[in-house]
Amino acid sequence: MADVAGNLVLLVLMIGLVLSSLLARRLPMSQMMKMLAAWALIFLTIFVLFSFRAEVKMVWDRVKAEAGFGTQVQADGTVRITKSADGHFHILADVNGHPVEFLVDSGATTTALSAADAAKAGVRTPQLAFPVIVSTANGQAEMQRGRVDRLAIGPIVRDDLGVLISDRLGGTNLLGMNFLSTLKGWRIEGDVMILTP
User: Fold this and answer.
1) Is 179 in contact with 112 (CB distance < 8 Å)?
2) Each residue of 128-171: pLDDT tens digit?
3) DSSP state, 169?
4) CA distances from 177 to 104, 173, 183 (A)
5) In this structure, are residues 96 and 148 in contact, taking their beta carbons and an 8 Å threshold?
6) Strongest mean pLDDT among 2-11, 60-69, 93-102, 169-178
7) Read out DSSP for 25-47?
8) How far is residue 51's CA from residue 30's CA, in Å, rounded to a whole number?
9) What angle do CA 157, 97, 155 make, to 5 degrees?
10) Which residues have C-beta within 8 Å of that of residue 124, sequence separation ≥ 6?
C-alpha cells in the first residue's frame, strides 16, 4: 500500500511539474494542449514499458541473440554467453553455414535439432538407421541420428558432430554434452556462461 501511495505522489509531482512549466510559458491553449498530449503519451509509454519490463527484456534478449550481441568472443577465443530472461543460456551457432539458435543443456547427452532446423541446415541422416528412443523431461521421444558437417560458435568449430533430430522439439534446439565435452572447459559465473575452446 505504501508503494502505491508513493507512486501516486510521484505521478502527481511529475504531472504538476509538466503543467507548471507549460503554464509558465504562457502558450496559446491549442499549443499547450498539444504539448500536454505529447507528455501524456511519453508518460504512458514509460508506464507500459515498465509494466511489461520482463517481456521487453525477453524480446531484447532475443534480438541480441539473433544479432549475436548476447555472445561475446574474447581475444583468447573464449566465448561468453549472457543468461536470457528465461533463466537459460541461448546461443546462436552456425550449423553448416546456417544460423541456428541453441539452448545450452548440460543435461542433454547429445546435441539435438528440430526437424525443421536440421532440414534447413542440410544435416546428414543415415538412410537405413533405426530411430533412437531418448528419455527427455517430457517423457520418451523417438529421434533420428544425424551428423553435422560443421558447427561453429564464434571461433569454436567442431566438424562431423553427431546429433539427434526430432519433430517433438518444436523450435528448440539443444546444445548437449557431446559438444560441451569437446571444450577445454566450461563454467558459469553469475549470469555468464564461459566456453573455453
Assistant:
1) no
2) 667 788 777 667 778 899 999 999 998 999 999 999 998 887 78
3) G
4) 9, 13, 10
5) yes
6) 93-102
7) TT--HHHHHHHHHHHHHHHHHHH
8) 31
9) 25
10) 146, 147, 148, 149
DSSP annotation string for 89-144? -EEEEEETTEEEEEEE-TT-SS-EEEHHHHHHHT-B--TTPPPEEEEETTEEEEEE
Rounded Cα gap, residues 66 and 115, in angstroms: 20
Task: Give the integer Cα–Cα distance in Å for 115 and 191.
Answer: 30
Give how far the C-alpha of residue 50 lies from the chain's centroid of Cα atoms, to the nearest Å. Answer: 20
Q: How far apart are CA 157 and CA 74, in angstroms?
A: 15
CB atoms within 10 A of CB 94: 15
- 0.85 exceeded by pTM: no
> What's the one-letter identity of residue 129?
A
Helix (H) / strand (E) containing 66: helix 53-67
Q: How far apart are CA 89 and CA 102, in angstroms?
A: 8
